[in-house]
Design a protein that fits this description.
By secondary structure, the protein is mainly alpha-helical. Helices cover about 65% and strands about 5% of the residues. A two-stranded antiparallel ribbon has the order 1-2.
């Protein structure tokens, strides 16, 4: 039993260290909208046949860079979507709310879909902001780590 608690304690310390660099973006993610995260550039000199392209907010790009370098990225995220049969952002939000520390991999999978998927399908980054996926995942991860710390501290007394 003590080995399990020690393992979980180490796991929570690692989780806390993993999310720490991303927490500074949480206030921005709470306030941001799709329009503030991305605009379409349609330059004055662009002709009729020219394509507009997305221009992302610098805070969003900084967040994506930090997230991409974090331990929260799971390149096998499609398995989470297959296993949980996730097809819509509403399902993602419901699953995020229901997660606990045992389903950290599900949170990582949802988070990874938006971070990694945005490389090839740019709308995913702004969708992650507008659908509040980034915000909800980080808040849930923080809640899990904080809650476990609080419970552990109470049981230590």
């Amino acid at each position: 039993m003590d080995n399990d608690i020690e393992y979980i304690k180490e796991l929570m310390a690692q989780y806390k260290a993993d999310i720490e660099p991303l927490m500074k973006y949480l206030p921005w993610l709470r306030e941001a909208t799709a329009a503030s995260a991305m605009t379409m550039y349609r330059g004055e000199s662009m002709g009729e046949g020219s394509l507009a392209f997305p221009v992302y907010d610098s805070t969003l790009m900084s967040f994506i860079k930090v997230a991409n370098d974090s331990a929260l990225i799971d390149r096998n995220y499609p398995y989470v979507y297959t296993r949980k049969r996730i097809t819509t952002p509403a399902q993602e939000r419901d699953i995020i709310v229901a997660c606990d520390y045992k389903s950290w991999d599900v949170l990582k999978g949802i988070f990874s879909r938006y971070v990694l998927g945005g490389r090839t399908k740019g709308v995913l980054w702004s969708q992650g902001v507008s659908e509040q996926i980034f915000c909800l995942v980080l808040e849930k991860m923080q809640e899990i780590v904080t809650e476990w710390d609080a419970e552990r501290n109470l049981s230590d007394k």
